[in-house]
Amino acid sequence: MKGADVYIGFSDTKKLTESMIASLASNPIIMTMDACNDTERVKRAAGEAIVSTGGRNQSSLILPYMTRAVLETEAREINLAMKVAAAKELD
What we know:
3 strands; alpha/beta; 3-stranded parallel beta sheet; single chain
């Protein structure tokens, strides 16, 4: 992981340690697909990173597409309408 720009994880976010996060390149993108309850811990450890998790209100199927849309449009928040639109695109 040392020097990586992007981390994509499919297991428990708690396995992603602070030292692992610190070894990433500056301003990394961190995406985890689990229902993460410690997003704030990852954000604190990552500093200026883009952090996206599978949290309880997100589906791991929607997450990669939602993240891409947010980055491309420079959105400042994800609202219900955006989640519904992304879910409809999976149909």
